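Tokens as discussed.
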């Protein structure tokens, strides 16, 4: 397969939604107490999502992302870089993703209605992303160069899904819309005036969107819990970023790291957070 995206082409991860309401949180904690304290103590706390995301219609952003994702798949298919359905690695990442997706509505009720897609694209880039509406792509370089275990793949996908579920892209676009940088496609797509232009162009912007440090920290924590609840070892988050760090020493470094800061601070935060989700991981393993 060809490296047609190139190492500089990193489609950043996306959206997110508000966490459970106070009543829902109380209900969850009560249920957790009935089955053991591990769940309640293990749940990470990342607070509420920014209200700014409300400036961009979620459904329009998801439509734009779906169109952009379909376009990427068409390009990959035309270049012979889209892995077929029966490819072992496609089956592998879809199996892992399906376990993670099962818990997605906990973080965003809209995820229940997303038409999730998971595809593998042939590229030497060390990359993966999840666009709004649950559109996931993994580049072969991520799996082949880093030799990731299933647990480590789950941590990558959980992190990317967390950006989408917590609507980070929607928030970032809302913060940027006043600059005029997002207004190139025109409002004709949705007939919503300037707001429509923002939503219409979101798909393009998602390919280069960089999230804030706080967004990255939040995605780490939410991704850690998503993986643990699906029965994937949270310790793999540390080994994953250690591999990423070693890969960054190569010429040019992974494209993934151009938008995902790594280093001792990130590893330390993950190590400190693992005890919060270990109980969830053990419960998930016991159920399997």
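Sequence:
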């Amino acid at each position: 397969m060809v490296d047609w995206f190139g190492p500089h082409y990193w489609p950043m991860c996306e959206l997110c939604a508000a966490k459970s309401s106070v009543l829902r949180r109380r209900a969850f904690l009560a249920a957790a107490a009935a089955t053991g304290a591990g769940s309640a103590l293990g749940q990470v706390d990342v607070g509420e999502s920014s209200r700014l995301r409300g400036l961009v219609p979620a459904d329009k952003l998801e439509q734009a992302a779906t169109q952009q994702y379909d376009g990427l798949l068409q390009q990959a298919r035309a270049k012979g870089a889209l892995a077929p359905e029966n490819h072992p690695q496609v089956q592998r990442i879809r199996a892992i993703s399906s376990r993670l997706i099962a818990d997605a509505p906990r973080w965003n009720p809209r995820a229940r209605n997303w038409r999730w897609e998971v595809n593998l694209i042939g590229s030497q880039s060390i990359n993966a992303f999840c666009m709004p509406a649950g559109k996931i792509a993994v580049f072969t370089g991520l799996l082949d160069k880093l030799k990731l275990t299933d647990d480590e793949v789950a941590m990558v996908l959980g992190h990317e899904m967390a950006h989408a579920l917590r609507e980070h892209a929607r928030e970032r676009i809302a913060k940027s819309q006043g600059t005029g940088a997002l207004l190139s496609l025109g409002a004709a797509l949705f007939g919503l005036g300037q707001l429509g232009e923002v939503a219409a162009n979101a798909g393009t912007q998602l390919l280069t969107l960089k999230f804030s440090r706080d967004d990255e920290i939040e995605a780490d924590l939410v991704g850690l819990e998503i993986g643990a609840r699906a029965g994937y070892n949270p310790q793999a988050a540390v080994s994953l970023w250690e591999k990423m760090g070693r890969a960054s020493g190569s010429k040019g470094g992974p494209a993934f790291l151009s938008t995902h800061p790594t280093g001792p601070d990130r590893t330390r935060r993950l190590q400190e957070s693992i005890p919060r989700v270990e109980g969830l991981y053990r419960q998930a393993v016991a159920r399997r």
